[in-house]
Design brief:
By secondary structure, the protein is of the alpha+beta class. It is built from 5 helices and 9 strands, in the order βαβββαβββββααα. The protein is globular, with a radius of gyration of 18 Å.
Length: 217
């Protein structure tokens, strides 16, 4: 099913609502730990898309970045994930969101149209931290194994390399953003993997455009 870009005046109020909820969550867990939050990939670059006449609406992705990861309880991945899940459950009271879901790689909140069995919009929050070993080419995130019922820390490469490539494109390619946006739209429409996040397609778009123009140079 083909995708279309969501206008800013449509996704921005939703983004503001989500970030107000995150700030409530920050206050709810403050006595135990603190965290920062950051949009991931396409959500922070105005490249939000949705299926045309689809039943899933559009979604946002955030990283919830734990501070002070040297504290003992942060090394138990279920601690922060379950504490944040409980806090989101409290923070969304009085909103249109359904109860938060403990997804494989994130906490997920959704606004649904039950009459049409449709997800209007949703948001995923990955729980992550950057290790203290001064190696920032990767981070660790909480993964929930639903079948086994346990939580583990898993490694994921950081996007810093993608950001470096984006900087090169800014300096060397006229109309670079049009090229990235076009490539992202192409990848989004061609993607057949339901488990691939939008931010992963965004980083792939930067990499593909960079490789094309860098090789030309």
């Amino acid at each position: 099913m083909p995708y279309e870009f969501v206008p800013r005046n449509e996704y921005r109020p939703f983004q503001q609502e989500v970030e107000a909820i995150i700030k409530k969550v920050q206050n709810l867990v403050r006595d135990s730990f603190t965290f920062q939050f950051r949009t991931v990939g396409s959500a922070g670059r105005a490249l939000i898309m949705r299926e045309i006449n689809g039943n899933r609406g559009f979604d946002l992705d955030y990283n919830l970045i734990l501070n002070n990861p040297d504290a003992d309880h942060f090394w138990k991945p279920e601690f922060a994930k379950l504490a944040l899940l409980k806090a989101f459950d409290e923070a969304i009271k009085g909103t249109m969101f359904d109860n938060p879901e403990d997804s494989t790689t994130s906490i997920t909140i959704k606004v649904k149209d039950r009459a049409k069995s449709r997800i209007i919009r949703s948001c995923d929050f990955a729980v992550i931290y950057y290790p203290n070993d001064e190696e920032y080419s990767y981070f660790k995130y909480v993964r929930f194994n639903k079948k086994a019922g346990n939580y583990t820390w898993e490694v994921r490469k950081s996007s810093y390399q993608a950001e470096e490539k984006l900087d090169w494109l800014k300096e060397n390619v006229e109309g670079y953003w049009y090229e990235i946006k076009t490539e992202y739209e192409k990848l989004k429409n061609a993607n057949k993997d339901p488990n691939k996040h939008s931010f992963q397609l965004y980083f792939e778009s930067i990499n593909n455009v960079f490789n094309r123009f860098y090789n030309q140079n």
